[in-house]
Design goal:
With about 325 residues, the protein is an alpha/beta fold. It has seven helices and 20 strands. The strands form six sheets. It has a five-stranded parallel beta sheet with strand order 5-2-1-9-20, with helices on one face. A five-stranded parallel beta sheet has the order 11-18-12-13-14. The protein has a three-stranded antiparallel beta sheet with strand order 6-7-8, with no helix packed on it. The radius of gyration is 21 Å and the shape is elongated. Bound molecules: flavin-adenine dinucleotide. The site of flavin-adenine dinucleotide (FAD) has 38 residues, from helix 1, helix 6 and helix 7. Flavin-adenine dinucleotide (FAD) binds near residues 13, 31 and 246.
Length: about 325
């Protein structure tokens, strides 16, 4: 046993797991497909007060602290890593990838999936966003609240926390917002109350289906329950889906541990039903994902890997 661990994804979960493994005397290797680590924190410009010890920090500044911490150690963190193969070797895994024009295969005793999630959108809106990236935004990460001028009209699609919270933040700075959602709102009661308290500024449109999105003279036009509407900016807040599709293409055997929605199924030690395969963070089927839980799951997986490699895996 060489105690090599390959971690797929350099977001908060993957970096936390790597740090804990390194500090336990193991050899983690983080493979991150993006040009930089940090995962969704790279797109979080908001100040918030949710992470203990980081009062009012933005996701971007928290990310910088994580990268700086990891950078103090000498384990490999490979960015712009394109996976090309994933095989079970019997005693571990072979992970083929290329980075910086060089093709390699890393052999590992354990594999940890930490590939997170990405914002979901139907193909029609994906295509609109790629044609008009200033007018159609997908996910909270693309919306810069402070860059939307007061007086603009925003159509917010979705009935969850992200839609209501961002609608409220926009309205507070003088933007007109309409929130469209198919059924009842799913957002926390507090966000719903805050939005309902701004009736002149925020329009709520429950039980409303939207379609027919197209460029208009100013902004975009679309239909809401068949009625023609216009907005300067359309923001799609349809939640997040797991980054497992590319992994499943490379390794169809992963299908044994992926649920119907694409999330990796794990037990309380972040272990999957496949030997030596762990998964952590938002890509897993654990409920109510957050930044602290992603970091915490990274440390749980690292400790469980140490115990398993010592021949005493924690019992579920
Ligand atoms: C705008 C915004 C605001 C947020 N606000 C909060 C908040 O206030 N509080 C809070 O607790 N949480 C918040 N979150 C959520 C928080 O950022 C996530 O819960 C956290 O980032 C999850 O970490 P993760 O490592 O599991 O996944 P991610 O952050 O998604 O990282 C996964 C990484 O894996 C990489 N990857 C994907 N596929 C592959 C592959 N095939 N090979 C290699 N690498 C791959 C991705 O590029 C990414 O870097 C927010 C998120 C956003 C976008």
């Amino acid at each position: 046993m060489t105690n090599e661990v390959v971690i797929l994804g350099g977001g908060p979960a993957g970096l936390s797991c790597a740090l804990w493994l390194h500090n336990s005397g193991y050899s983690p290797r983080v493979l991150e497909q993006a040009p930089a680590c940090g995962g969704l924190l790279r797109f979080n410009h908001h100040e918030n007060d949710w992470l203990l010890g980081f009062p009012n920090a933005t996701g971007l500044s928290i990310r910088e602290r994580f990268i700086e911490h990891v950078g103090r150690h000498d384990f490999p963190v490979v960015t712009s890593a394109a996976l090309s193969g994933l095989r079970a070797t019997g005693s571990g895994f072979g992970v083929a990838y290329s980075a910086g024009g060089e093709a390699r295969e890393a052999l590992a005793d354990f594999l940890v999936i930490a590939s997170g999630t990405r914002p979901r959108a139907p193909a029609e809106l994906e295509s609109l966003a790629s044609q008009y990236p200033q007018r159609c935004l997908i996910g909270a990460g693309q919306l810069r609240i402070d860059e939307v001028p007061p007086g603009r009209r925003v159509a917010m699609l979705g009935g969850g926390d992200n839609a209501f919270e961002n609608a409220w933040l926009l309205a507070r700075r003088g933007v007109w917002v309409d929130i469209y959602y198919r059924g009842e709102a799913r957002a926390q009661r507090d966000w719903q109350n805050r939005c309902a308290a701004m009736p002149g500024r925020i329009g709520l449109h429950p039980h409303t289906a939207t379609d027919g999105f197209a460029k208009a003279a100013q902004g975009l036009e679309f239909r809401a329950n068949g009625e023609l509407r216009q907005a300067d900016i359309v923001v799609v807040m349809y939640g997040y889906g797991p980054n497992t599709d590319a992994l499943l293409q490379l390794a169809p055997w992963l299908g044994d541990v992926v649920d119907a929605h694409g999330f990796v199924q794990v037990n309380e030690y972040q272990r999957t039903a496949l030997p030596r395969l762990y998964a952590i963070g938002d890509v897993t089927n654990r409920p109510l994902p957050t930044l602290p839980s992603a970091i915490g799951q990274g440390s749980v997986a690292a400790k469980a890997i140490v115990l398993e490699s010592e021949g005493r895996p924690p019992a579920p």
